[in-house]
Design brief:
2 copies of one chain form a homodimer. Chain A has about 475 residues and is an alpha+beta fold. The first copy, chain A, has 4 domains: about 90 residues, Uridine Diphospho-n-acetylenolpyruvylglucosamine Reductase, domain 2 (2-Layer Sandwich); about 120 residues, Uridine Diphospho-n-acetylenolpyruvylglucosamine Reductase, domain 3 (2-Layer Sandwich), CATH 3.30.465; about 120 residues, Alpha-Beta Plaits (2-Layer Sandwich), CATH 3.30.70; about 90 residues, Alpha-Beta Plaits, CATH 3.30.70.2740. Chain A has 16 helices and 21 strands. In chain A, the strands form 5 sheets. The first copy, chain A, has a 7-stranded antiparallel sheet with strand order 15-12-14-13-19-20-17, with helices on both faces. A 5-stranded antiparallel sheet of chain A has the order 5-6-10-8-9. Chain A has a 4-stranded mixed sheet with strand order 1-2-4-3, with helices on both faces. Chain A starts with a helix and ends in a 17-residue tail after the last helix.
Chain lengths: ~475, ~475
């Protein structure tokens, strides 16, 4: 699909192995982890920032559309070409250098193509890690571009909080390389251009190098499964744990009965941790200390058990049961939820984000709406209660898996209730990819769209998979 | 100085008491806390966002320059008019509503003119606080506009980390009001326009409302004064405390002998805490727990003493002494440093920010440079070792207080070494005001300046006190 002249020119810019045109070799770059992929005209694999700059400049000058791609683990269709076969993929998978760690500084500087697992393996001997806890193994460039969150957001925050510096290549005719800060923790000597690239999903340029702050690894961890009286008991329980566990609280993950049941039924390696049957709702709570056990200090699991025991004894009856056990076993259920849902039927997934106070009320209203209008879809939600994130996932009947109109109606109904009704975000932690184009057009305020497009235009031709749209005349 | 037509029009827009032209009444708005002020043509005091929009639009349409002002506590000359008498001040001191607190959500939404002390007083009954620890009492709008840090950055981060939503008025002919997010902890449904306004110092618009995440107040605090062997011992001591105290470590503040001595000599309320004389360097370390003392858990001061005792016993000799006492008494020295310096002579102050690893090496090279070229200036530095921040303050002889050329040469020499030599920032946590115009022009990379100016231009006429400059042609 790619003109031979362009093919030769790009191949020369990236060197041997740097340009893939063969359909069989392209497949890995066209096939994302969890949604249907597209077709690429070719795959460019620059090995240095200079090569990224060269191919980006070439593409912009010749009007070739391209999509930047990290590890292709995203869920928002931000990293894959569409079905047209006319887009190129700009893979950063050869950009695996540098990989520099400064233990005293507690920072790491890595190429945009370095994987999270690679970084963490290199940090491990220093007792350090990047505490963004995900079910996938993305690249650092991709994590910055999507501003990923994760299950320990409550304690550590998102990728934005960890990015201390970026090197980016702008999608302009020159392939301009911008250095945005030098790994300083504090820097107010210029306006915050760097922040545009974090979560920008390629709208402002391609991230070729990332400096992150990293943390000391936990030395003690304890976890429990809590059974709250009902959904309304969850916010006060969270508040109680925030007060009693303070900065040792690292996860507070809510799971609905439907989600847990599907995991238990469909994931063979998982056993039911609940002796008395799966409850309507459960919360995985985790505490961690980064310091080793000290003399005179109760072990962390005792502290957790004491907090839970106090709550079980309270008159308010917010907590009705608590299960303790090895940390891995406690997390096993939470980690199996996605797999359980996918194994049980076609999933319509949402990555919603609410103010914490709205979580229970939204869920109640959504259940009523679903019962009335979509009774054939089962709500199997779970999420990060403490940061307001909800994977509001619905599993439909297998025979309706390919009914795009009904799926679209369901999406529209859920998003309208969440965004219009509760001021929620339709993309909590998965970034802004093509999967959200309709939601962006429909729900993002017109003024925000216009200014976003105008700012993106400052940085050159947009390389984002989501169209921010041509700016309308501002003022 | 203000044309009567404009005066009448602006007075009508802001209502009674909203426009100040009388020189005596203007003085408070022309006189900042710590530097020489300027002269305002008039002071506008809108009481609502609608009024802010109206006066901003009027000023832009009629070419009237204005400077937004919060509590006027800044140190970077970002909130005061220059000496020309032609600029208006746009004070947000009547924008003290709303003041809404949601304890379960752990968020507060306040008018841009609400003071930090007012917010914290309102949060106190809920056991909450905004943990940005400053020596001043700024407005929340000002704190967001300058992205303030503070003495507990190590644990809680800067203002950027806490801002969950902003309402801003753009400095354009329409006085456009933008709502940027709704207080969500996670939101990747749009590009991060909000981040431009945090630390933007008015370059993109005026902050009229702020939603912040707040935290549970500490329930236990312990502090100590540590005497390290020498400056090179400080980074490994910090690392040891990060490992041993983990998330309970909330401050690690370095103080030079010269700074401590001036505080002890010039602040009458302060007594010398060091029995054996003031050491060359000391570190104030603070641990906090947000949870109440639990059965079976050693008190926090015992934990701190144990960590220090272990370090004192170690063969490496990094720590040579440690003083314990009431938390207030431990902090008293640190809090008296600025006052001590100002009382001892004219101060040339710097708010530098380094990679942690560069702190000791920069100081050594700076001392050599100062001894050679500025022997009449005494280095009285102190700073936030854990975040790389240094208040690299120099006290000069009284008779040279008004030698602007020599002060400029000193500034140039220090900044050249710090920024060019070590990749430091010339504004760690004080924002980007007119005081840094020369540094911005000289040290901020040309490309970053150009893109910053182009992005600012998208949002209308700049209202910043620092000139980002007309963008040169990009590409």
């Amino acid at each position: 699909m790619l003109d031979q002249v362009h093919q030769d020119a790009l191949a020369a810019l990236v060197g041997p192995g740097g340009l893939i045109t063969d359909p069989a070799d392209r497949a890995a770059y066209e096939t994302p982890a969890r949604y249907a992929g597209g077709t690429a005209a070719a795959v460019m694999r620059p090995a240095t920032t200079t090569q990224v700059s060269a191919v980006v400049g070439y593409c912009v000058r010749h009007g070739l559309r391209f999509t930047p791609q990290g590890a292709n683990t995203g869920l928002a269709e931000g990293s894959t070409p569409d079905a047209s076969g006319t887009h190129l993929v700009l893979s950063l998978d050869r950009l695996t250098g540098p990989l520099e760690i400064d233990p005293g500084d507690r920072t790491a500087t890595v190429g945009g193509g370095v994987r999270l697992s690679t970084l963490n393996a290199a940090l491990e001997p220093h007792g350090l890690f990047l505490p963004i806890d995900l079910g996938a193994d993305p690249t650092l460039g991709g994590m910055a571009a999507t501003n990923t969150g994760g299950a320990r957001f409550l304690r550590y925050g998102d990728m934005r909080r960890h990015v201390l510096g970026l090197e980016v290549v702008l999608a302009d005719a020159a392939g301009t390389v911008l250095q945005l800060s030098h790994g300083l923790r504090k820097d107010n000597a210029a306006v915050a251009l760097r922040q545009l690239f974090v979560g920008g999903c390629g709208a402002f340029g391609i991230i070729t190098q990332v400096t992150v702050e990293v943390h000391h690894r936990p030395r003690q961890t304890a976890a429990a499964l809590l059974v709250p009286r009902d959904l309304d008991a969850v916010p006060p329980l969270l508040q109680a744990f925030e007060v009693e566990a303070g900065s040792t609280l690292t996860a507070f993950e809510g799971m609905s009965r439907a989600a847990m049941t599907r995991a238990i039924d469909h994931v063979p390696s998982l056993s039911n941790p609940f002796a008395g049957g799966v409850p309507d709702y459960a919360v995985l709570v985790e505490l961690t200390r980064t310091w080793a056990p000290r003399e005179g200090e109760a072990p962390l699991d005792e502290m957790l058990q004491q907090i839970a025991a106090d709550l079980l004894e309270r008159d308010d009856g917010l907590l009705i049961d608590a299960l303790f056990g090895p940390v891995d076993r406690m997390w096993a259920l939470r980690h199996a939820l996605s797999e359980g849902l996918r194994a049980s039927g076609p999933v319509v997934g949402f990555d919603l984000s609410f103010r914490r106070r709205d979580l229970a009320r939204f869920r109640r209203e959504a259940v009523l709406m679903l019962e009335a209008d979509f009774p054939d879809y089962a709500l199997c939600d779970f999420g990060h209660v403490a940061d307001g994130g909800v994977h509001f996932n619905l599993v439909g009947p297998a025979d309706k898996a390919n009914d795009p109109e009904r799926r679209a109606a369901l999406r529209e109904a859920v998003l309208t209730l969440a965004v219009d009704g509760f001021g929620a975000s339709f993309s909590g932690e998965h970034g802004l990819g093509r999967a959200f184009q309709d939601a962006y057009d429909r729900f993002t305020p017109r003024l925000v769209q216009d200014y976003s497009a105008a700012v993106a235009a400052v940085f050159g031709t947009s390389s984002a998979s989501v169209r921010l749209g041509p700016p309308t005349e501002i003022n």
